[in-house]
Each structure stands twice: as C-alpha cells, then as structure tokens.
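Data availability (excerpt). The following record was deposited with the supplementary files.
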Amino acid sequence: MIVLVRRVGAVLTLLAAASVTAASPPAVDRSPAMPTPALLEALRAADLRLAAIGLRLTTSNAALCRELQPRLGVQWHALSQYQPPVRSAVRANFHFATDTAIEVVVPAGPADKAGVHNDDGLISIDGSPVKTALPAAEVPASTLDRDAIDARIAKLPPDRPIRLGLERDGARLEIAVVPVPGCRVRFEVHDEDEASSDDSIIQIGASFLDRYDDNALAVIVAHELGHVILRSRARLEAAGAKWGILSEFGKSGRLHHQAEAEADRLSVYLLANAGYDPMLAGQFWRGAGRSLDLGILRNRAYPDWKTRAANLDAEAAKIPAGVPLPYVPPMISLRDTPMK
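Predicted structure:
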C-alpha cells in the first residue's frame, strides 16, 4: 500500500513513499513530507475501494479457486511499515495502540457485521497473541509484521469463525468474525503506474484509483485475479518464459501473450459471477482503458485495444443465458495445462 497521497480535484497523486509495500525494499535515505490527516484519510479511502472490489470478486469466485482463505473484509496495516520520520503523524491519525491494526473495514462485509471498527488494534487471533509492541524510532520500514498477520489468517479454515482480540479506545475486547470463503490472494495499492500480480498478491497502482471508476477498477482487478486463478506465473516459469525486456520477444513473447489472453478471457466470467456486467471488460478497452494502449510503444505481450475489446465481447457472449452463478467455465482447466 502507499502511504502518502494527495487529492487534487479527482487526482490521487503520490507525494512521497512514506511506507514500503510488499514488493519494495526499505528506503534508507528518504525524507518523506509529513502527512496531514486529510492525506492519510485519502489513503484510507483508496485502500477501501480496492478492498471492497477485492472482497466482492474473491468471494463470488471461490468456486473457481483451489486455494481459499477466510475473507474478513478488512485491510491490515502496521505502524512498522511506515517510514520512521512520519510514524508520529501516522500513529496520531490512525490511533495505533498496537503495531498491527485495521486500516479499513469494508461496509457490509463479515468484519463490519461482527462489529469490528477502523483503527482497532490487533492483540490476538483465536486467543493466540500477536506482536503488539510499537516499533522503535530507528527501526527501518518493513511490511514483515503486516504480512505475518495476513499469512496467519490466510492459513485458517476459510469458513470457521475467527476470534479477534482487539484494543479500542484503551479497552480490550474479543469479537468473533464469521468469514466468507474466498480466493487466497492479497491486495495492495502501490506507487507504480501499473497493475500486476503473481500467485499470491495483486498490486494496483495508485494512479489507477485516480483515473478509473469502480467498474473500471473491477475490470482491472478481475484480469489480475484471472492470472492468480490460472497460475500464470508458475506456468510461465515452467515453460521457460523470461521477464523484463526479454518478455516481448520470441518464445517468451508468445507465452506472455498467451497468459494475458487467458486472463482476459477468464476475467469476464469473474465479473459475471460477482454481479458485474461481463460486457464491462470490452467497454473498458473502448473507453477509459484506451489510455493504457501506447500504440507502437505497447508491450507486445498485449494485443491492441480494438482486438482486446472484441475478444472480451466474444468471450462474454459465451456465458449461457440464465446460468446459475457462480459459473465455472470450461477454460478453468487451463490452469493445469502446460504452456508451450
């Protein structure tokens, strides 16, 4: 997740990297500007948008996922992931009483229904204590504490109540949350101008939350979730695909193109299962998504926007009328098919 953002009209602009994400190393020589409460609440709003879309897509498509986790409808953050110079401001705004706390609670999600609040500090999970000590001033920013909580919850039975020991306004309480089973994956807003995924995390660039409405974001997230479900990364690696600039050429280029086409195809079914119009995917590439097509500078792993939109429309048309949801398309078998 990003930690310091600014609203300029409808623009969500990264001002400074005041925390690290799961994909970034701790910064040593950074001096981020001191965040104001308004900026930190803009961050919370951005993370809430992604968390809500992620909850909807992962729980509605649990039938398509082999690996499930309990989805609580929360976003965790840890004071230790914020850069030392801004921790005092961050702690004051988010009321950190323990190192790891709940940044956002998705409205009408499992945690919200159970009575969990934003800024509740985490003390224990199912009666087992978690690290609560606040980080020392000189400790570099790291996501390890937050990631440990995510991993611990992900390993629990996906449909069993989870007892969260919490601290709120100086008082301790325990709340049992009945989760909804959902695909096992984490979501994170980061400071790159891209959306990406591997087999365990989906990262959406902060600029995407500025540019696109929730329907467009759902299209983007569904595509990345398609990669997770289809095990794109593992299958590409097994086929000997390269990454970076070499990913666009020869065998690697063909393999990456295949992976992107598969994720596009699956995304329309994921959208439909979550109650979105599956035609949104094609509409996105004819509209707001065209800005992602750089023409001759486009990454060759992706088709041009016209081809992409037409292919998405064709795939959406394959969904049988009146079929019970969730619908598991035959193409799900691709996750076990070696790429060639």
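Summary of structural features: The two ends are 35 Å apart (CA to CA).
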